[in-house]
Structure formats: structure tokens, C-alpha cells
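Entry for the shared binder. Reason: the reviewer on the internal report wants the predicted structure included alongside the sequence.
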Amino acid sequence: MTYYYSPTTQGFYVLEIHPTLPADALELTGDQYNALFDAQAQGAVIQAGPNGIPVAVSPASLLTVADVQAARIAILSINCQTAIESSFPSSALASPHTYPSRITDQRNLSDAMSASLNPGLPSGWTTLLWCEDLSAGSWAIVAHSAAQVQQVHADWLAFRQAAQQKLVSLTGQVQGATSVSAVEAVVWTNLPGQDQSSNL
């Protein structure tokens, strides 16, 4: 068999099957032909090299800085949302506690916050919130006073805003990067109090 490759069509031809070849067809040895398709089977992409001879390259090498920037920003956005929905620390109780912050938890905290602002609350009013006592390493439903609920809510807002500001900062770093390696060097790190298992 006699093998050819055309940089124009980016196609391979076998002379015995394709007697009419493109004008720019370049002859390949059998070893070159087989090596290229072996590499393709391993995930490589075949393209014309500088002199027209086909070469096998890694798909990652074909990505532009803009491609990598878009992918990195998408990952950072997921990291941010994961952080927001993991858990957050609060100083509302006597010892450090962590509070869950998934969507349902956020709604529950918002309801508790609204209730705590009711001017007609009876003396000694409390509501229950699910939280982890970091000193004991245990989760429990704990009674919170109105002031404690409001402190938990304030700590939650500060935590969420810190995550959002971090995303804005990292996105700016990605957009300002001028090389693939510089883009890939921008990574999310856990916020203080963030569940360490939640980061992607």
C-alpha cells in the first residue's frame, strides 16, 4: 500500500484505492501512517504540521487562551456555588459553630430571621436551628434567641458575600491572564469555615 496525506483536505489516501490524489498530497511511509492512527486511538488529534506532513497532537494543545479562560471561569463559578452551599461559621453561640447552607437551609434561616424581627415576640422567644458544635464535633438542633438568629444570619451574609467577592477577584485574574499556564494557575481555595470536602 502507498499512503498519502493532503493538508488541504486533511484526509488520507491510499493510492491503490484513490488513483486520483489532491494536488498537495504528500507520500507517507507505512510506519508513519500506522503511528498516526495508533496515536489517534490514544486520544491524539491528527493535523497538518508546518511542512504539511501530518502530526499527532494532544487535544489540549489546540485550546486557545480564550477557550481555557472560559472553562476556568465556569469551574470557579461552580466552586463558588459549592462553597456557598457547603456550610459557614458563626459566632452567635458561646462556642464556635458551623451552620449548613444548602438551599433549604438558607430558606429556613431566612424564615427564622423574619420571625426574630417580629416586634410582638414573647419574652424568652427562641427558635431551633441545625448546627455543629465544632468543639464537640457533633450536630444538633439548638435553640437560638432572636439576637442569636440575627447574628447567624449576619454571619451567613458575610460568608456568602466573601465567596462572591472571591469569585469576582479570581475571574478578573483569569481574564487578565495571557497564557494557558497562567489561567490554570488560578484556583479556588476554601474560605475560612468552609467545609473542606466541598471544594472541587
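Summary line for the report: The chain has a mean pLDDT of 92.
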